Amino acid sequence: MPDPICPLCDRPIPVDAPQSLHHLIPKLKGGKGGPTVLMHHICHREIHATLSEAELARDFHTPEQLRAHPRLAKFAAWIAKRPPGFASKIPGKRRKR
User: Is 84 inside any structural domain?
Assistant: First the structure.
């Protein structure tokens, strides 16, 4: 069976790669039990470093909307050049918008 594909960067997610589930609508905004997508942990962290829970719930609750965000599109283009199991060793912080 092929590896699942990350909806942000379109790279395969190997079994041994750091991965996590992203709630398309944040749990704090009514998304508990709602749809989730499996993604690379580094991609998931970038989403939450870029957008607030309110922005995710209001404007960015599909993979297509996430990929259309300018900063996330730039990140996805950068990470797409890395191997599927690539993980940053430096913990990311929430960036100022």
Answer: no
48 domain-assigned: yes
Indicate the pTM of the whole model: 0.88
Q: What is the pLDDT of residue 90?
A: 56
The domain in which residue 45 lies consists of: 19-79
Q: To which residue do tokens 């993604």 refer?
A: 39
Give me the number of domains the chain comprises.
1
Q: What is the mean pLDDT of each run of 10 residues along the chain (97 residues)?
A: 93 93 93 93 94 95 96 95 81 55
Phi/psi at 38 (5° precision): -80, 135
In a domain, 49, yes or no: yes
Task: Using only the alpha carbons of the chain, give its radius of gyration.
Answer: 13
Residue 15 CA, chain-centre distance (Å), reads 17
pLDDT of residue 65: 97
| Token output for 84 | 């599927």
* Cα(60)–Cα(97) distance, integer angstroms: 16
**Do 84 and 11 meet the contact criterion of CB atoms below 8 Å apart?**
yes
